[in-house]
Amino acid sequence: MRRGFPGRGxxxxxxxxxxxxxxxxxxxxxxxxxxxxxxTKDSVRxxxxxxxxxxxxxxxxxxxxxxLTQFLDHPFSLRxxxxxxxxxxxxxxxxxxxxxxxxxxxxxxxxxxxxxxxKTDDAGRDSKKATR
Length: 132
Prior knowledge:
By secondary structure, the chain is α+β, with helices and mostly antiparallel strands. The protein has helices at residues 58-68, 97-100, 107-112, and strands at residues 15-24, 27-39, 44-56, 75-83, 86-93, 114-120, 126-131.
């Protein structure tokens, strides 16, 4: 799975690759998502999730893996802005049941919201990772 600042040199044109690393209940959980996408002139990225891979150990990782399958082959959209090495993401819609019924955003959507800064090494070169 390729990693990079979403949509900025992290893969081929019109393909999005993202890797998420985290812990839940003291268990490490990693998952990678890829999607086909397009962008409107007013910076709305929309597309379809085409692949999800997850790694982890224990019951929590198995539960997360099962939950993530709900996003496979579903549409998504988000509004974004890039300022230098900072990516701001807002208005995330993952095409899930709660989003379609107008309820509060899913936890997964909340993870994507915010400002993400592209990391660089000591020489100022891109490091292929982004942080909040």
